[in-house]
Amino acid sequence: MDENNIRKYAQLMKELELTALEITSDNETIRMERSNTAPAAAQKTALRFGPEDEAPAEAAPKSNLREVKSPMVGVYYAAPEENAEPFVSVGMPVKKGDTLCLIEAMKLINEIVAEEDGTIAEICVRNGQVVEYGTVLFRLGEEK
Questions:
Q1: What is the mean pLDDT of each run of 10 residues along the chain (144 residues)?
Q2: What is the value of pTM for the model shown?
Q3: 66-141, what's its fold?
Q4: Which DSSP category does 124 fall into?
Q5: 57 vs 2, 19, 31, 63, 109, CA distance in Å?
Q6: Where in the chain is the domain with CATH 2.40.50.100?
Q7: Contact 9, 32 (CB under 8 A)
Q8: What letter would DSSP give residue 62?
Q9: Beta-ladder partners of 101
Q10: pLDDT confidence of residue 78
């Protein structure tokens, strides 16, 4: 990929306030990342080519909720494949060991499983979003 294209994509990242961008073309892949100094409310997710994903569910009251955090840096996926039903949805009960989502890190797919029983009270990230270590993925409420 030539330098002009790289500069064009870097400018696009800046304009859209993206923290990561990965492009594959003609057996050539380029991944660009940058630190984000914008306030959390203004942060955008990685650019995805495809239909817009649904926004995360509205936040539930924060009392007595337990957080499920990302154990790694990578790309969050809500479903096992494109156009498939997500592993979990708001209000869904989960048991210890149930798959909650996938995180792709360095071309490896990692299953994130529930460490305890509960009910999904909030989904805090969007499908295709780049997550950091410690990013809150879900909030679990008491088991129904």
A1: 78 77 76 60 42 46 80 92 91 93 90 92 92 92 76
A2: 0.56
A3: OB fold (Dihydrolipoamide Acetyltransferase, E2P) (2.40.50)
A4: -
A5: 40, 22, 29, 17, 24
A6: 66-141
A7: yes
A8: -
A9: 112
A10: 93
How far is the C-alpha of 34 from the C-alpha of 19, rounded, in Å?
Answer: 5
- Closest-CA residue to 123 (of 58, 53, 32, 76): 58
Burial per residue of 71-102, b for 16 or more beta-carbon CB atoms within 10 angstroms, e otherwise = ebbbbbbbeeeeeeebbbebeeebeeeeebbb
Tokens coding 54 = 């649904």
22 by Cβ neighbours in 10 Å (0-12 / 13-18 / 19+) ranks as middle
Query: Do 131 and 138 contact (CB within 8 A), yes or no?
Result: no
Q: How far apart are CA 82 and CA 53, in angstroms?
A: 11
Rounded to 10 degrees, the C-alpha dihedral 55/73/68/134 comes to -110
The number of angstroms, rounded, from the C-alpha of 75 to the middle of its chain's C-alpha atoms is 5
